[in-house]
Amino acid sequence: MGKAKGSPVDDVKPEVEEVEKAEEVEEQSNGGEVAEEEEEKDKSFEELGLDPRLIRALSKKGIEKPTPIQQTAIPYILEGKDVVARAKTGSGKTLAYLLPLLQKLFSDSGRKKKPAPCAFVLVPSRELCQQVYTEVSWLIELCRVQLKAVQLTSSMPVSDMRNALAGLPEILVTTPACIPKCFADGVLDPAAISDSLEILVLDEADLLLSYGYEDNLRSVTSIVPRRCQCLLMSATTSTDVEKLKKLILHNPVVLTLQEGADKEEPVPSNVQQFWISCSAQDKLLNILALLKLEVVQKKILIFINTIDMGFKLKLFLEKFGIKTAILNGELPQNSRLHILEQFNAGLFDYLIATDDNNQTKEKEEVKGDDNKEGKKNKRRFKPKLDAEFGVVRGIDFKKVHTVINYDMPQSVSGYIHRIGRTGRAYSSGSSVSLVSPDEMGVFEEIKSFLAGEEDKDSDIITPFPSLTENAVESLRYRAEDVAKSVTKIAIRESRAQDLRNEIINSEKLKSHFEANPRDLDLLKHDKLLSKTAPSPHLRDIPEYLVDAKTQEASKMVKLARAAMGGSRRTGGAGGQKKKRSRKGGDPLKTFNANGSKRGHGGGVGQKKDGKGSSDGSANKKQKTV
Ligand SMILES: Nc1ncnc2c1ncn2[C@@H]1O[C@H](COP(=O)(O)OP(=O)(O)OP(=O)(O)O)[C@@H](O)[C@H]1O
User: Fold this and answer.
1) Protein residues whose CB sits closer than 6 Å to any atom of ligand 1
2) pTM for the full predicted model
3) Which residues on neighbouring strands pair with residue 122, listed in sequence order?
4) Tens of pLDDT along 301-339?
5) Selection from 92, 73, 85, 94 nearest residue 254 by Cα
């Protein structure tokens, strides 16, 4: 969500650098419309023609100014155009379509209800379904209009689906897989949809096909009436987006948000990207050093590629008194939502997440195929991964300061989506990738993609500066000793236990969420966090073991944290010093932080003078839009 009123973001002074405008129509598609170049001036929500009720609602949520993609897309959508909008992660695409969508429905509110929803928002995962539903619900509530939104997912019992649709909602948020299921169960009537449907949104369009929804989407498109306005939102370009564009849209306006003067920057440049070279075996040691010596800023999202690795890491870190929670596609949906909400609410600082389902499934299968132990595990747990699970893509994790790639993602787009979980809204963040020799291939691919064709030598992902080899080595003995104690059996048991607990919880959570959708306090996920006290020699690392440079870096991170009011504060995020001044920094707006060369002795997540800069509070050079 946006900042509260009077947040540091509102105080920052305009910087000399110009905000790059969202570039107007990039290309003409199938005879699509070409927009006129507009003069480069930031527009307010009023100037975009938004209804005052929406503007008031946004203001109550502390959202005062439209982001570039919102400035560009909203007028076209209000005009009734089909739109393809591509803008980087965290740039505010959800409101870019929800605001005009709601405004269009405002004029119908109060009229006779239609037999089927007139707006469909299709997203690739349940997590996103929940997120978009929450967003649209608060807007409706704050605008006090007679509109109703519901969310449906494939796992819902038919009776629940019927109940949800009984109130004749105008807006349906769902996944593509759910719609054919609704047809088959007689919950939705294709003919009624053809009559009612006015707006169809495909959110995270770059992922819809990769999640295997092509057939589902075809069955939806066959009933989409010609008059229906179609919107396609995406963070990256891909052949899938092109395919969808041809499948569903009519002469769309294609908007590409280009923030750099001449090249696209898929990762917000207010995210500092680092890497550490280490062997696969030394990854545990390195992540221990990062977390235990506190040289990276909390909250921290750690990505691993397999569920077992997640549990191994969790058990390993627990022995050092570092408590983590786990999020993966094996957990029941209610538990996942609860963990996400708790993490977003700041109830814990470290979350270990697997990538989206496809990747995890592949890995688990590969592992099971050539590993008897793996096969045994699979039989025992029968892990059923949720086909609609998607942690990485599009989920708006709140105030994540650091993303750690414990395992490297398998593709460039995987990397972009992972890193996009930090540096969202007006915050800044950093990422640290642990790269083993086996992963150098994909790492090089990512680096050259980020650097772009003309700028191959530019160093976008730089060596992590705040951890010396000595500091890492000082922990080696302890790390190796503890790693040995985290056996396959311990991992298997922990995973099975976790799953059992969550299945039991899930039922309680279900009724709880129904009764109190916003209440987070019924069930704490304490069981995810071990109650076994770590032994003191592992919990407390003696100061003499850590060299002066790393100690200094850690001190800086703590100072920055204190300046932000600690991680549990609901206010600012960030606290990073920018690596270099660049146009097109913030995904929501361009800003130019006051950054000199980073890294000498200072920890990641603070200014060189030691004063923390919380997402703009100390960063007086941030540009206001
Ligand atoms: N105009 C605005 N001002 C301040 N905050 C905003 C504004 N618009 C959106 N936000 C906030 O920015 C965050 C990111 O928005 P959103 O999730 O829509 O990004 P996105 O572009 O869809 O990212 P992704 O591609 O990862 O899904 C959200 O917390 C949202 O509430």
Assistant:
1) 1-2, 63, 65-67, 70, 87, 89-95, 235, 394, 396, 420, 424-425, 588
2) 0.64
3) 174, 202
4) 999 999 899 999 999 999 999 989 988 887 777 777 788
5) 85
